[in-house]
Structures are given as structure tokens and as C-alpha cells.
Design brief:
This protein is mainly β and 161 residues long. Helix content is 10%, strand content 49%. The protein binds copper (II) ion.
Length: 161
């Protein structure tokens, strides 16, 4: 038996306990409306942690088959989008998931997102003490303002006639 095992088990037990650090607030959530045939869309919101070293780990939703945390950034003058393992949430700072930056990507939408609908998501946040916080978010669906559309293209080849 390895000597490290007892402490590892203790750490795992601690990780499943409820956390005194569970203080991430979500504000201004919204999801971008889609057009017919569009399979992917983005969800945006502001996150603010009351404690240091919290991280947004993952998102689940019944609205799509897959939800990923994505980042958009310029690489060699090309805007690229990729999945990130986590988004750090520094204490007391608002971290915005927004078009052109971090966002939640929904892929395999179960149905088109129409303005006025709402979608429900569950965020999973990892806290400094190892505890995970699940945050239920209801995001109203909004049509994307034309000015913001330039920064973010969906994965699928959506046609907008
Ligand atoms: Cu994306």
C-alpha cells in the first residue's frame, strides 16, 4: 500500500463536502437566437466570484447535445475559437462571457433558439478548497445585435437569408 493513499482519500472526501467558498454570482445571462438549420449557438453572461481561485469548469444543458466553454482570440490575424479546460474567476472581478471572448458553445441544438424563449443551463464551478458548486442559470434567448455579429461565427454553416 502506498503511503500517499490515506491523504488522497481524505482529499477526495473533502472535495465532495459542501463548500464555504460557494459564492459565484451570475448576471445578465443570454443566449443567441438561431436561424433554421443552425446547429450551434452561444450563451453569454457575467460571472463574479467572492473568493479567489474559483474556476468555471463545465456547463450542461438539455437544450443541446454538447455544451463547451470556448475562447475566441486572434492568432496570426485570424479569429480562432477553441474549447478551454476552465475559465479562472478572480475574486471580486467580473468575468464576462461575451461575443468575441469566452463563451458557452452549444452544439447539436435540440431545436432552434427563438427570441423570447429561455434555456436552462447548469454551470459547474471548482472552488479553491476542491468543492464543486453547481449553479442553475436561466438564459433568455435574444436576437444578436448586428454590431456584435462580426466577432463570432457559429461552427455550423448557417445561412442567413
Ligand atoms: Cu464557440
Amino acid at each position: 500500500m502506498r503511503p500517499l493513499l490515506p491523504s488522497l482519500l481524505a482529499a477526495l472526501a473533502f472535495a465532495t463536502a459542501s463548500s464555504a467558498y460557494a459564492h459565484v454570482t451570475v448576471s445578465n445571462p443570454w443566449a443567441r437566437a438561431t436561424v433554421a438549420q443552425q446547429q450551434a449557438s452561444g450563451v453569454f453572461m457575467d460571472l463574479r466570484s467572492a473568493h479567489d481561485n474559483a474556476q468555471l469548469l463545465s456547463v450542461t444543458t438539455d437544450a443541446a447535445s454538447t455544451a463547451e466553454v470556448h475562447e475566441m482570440r486572434m492568432e496570426d490575424n485570424v479569429m480562432k475559437m477553441r474549447a478551454v479546460p476552465s475559465v479562472s474567476l478572480p475574486s471580486g472581478q467580473t468575468v464576462s462571457l461575451k461575443p468575441g471572448g469566452y463563451h458557452i458553445m452549444l452544439m447539436g441544438l435540440k431545436k432552434p433558439l427563438a427570441a423570447g424563449d429561455n434555456i436552462d443551463l447548469t454551470l459547474e464551478v471548482l472552488h479553491e478548497d476542491g468543492a464543486k458548486e453547481r449553479i442553475a442559470v436561466r438564459a433568455p434567448v435574444r436576437a444578436l445585435a448586428p454590431a456584435a455579429a462580426a466577432g463570432h461565427q457559429p461552427h455550423s454553416g448557417a445561412h442567413q437569408h
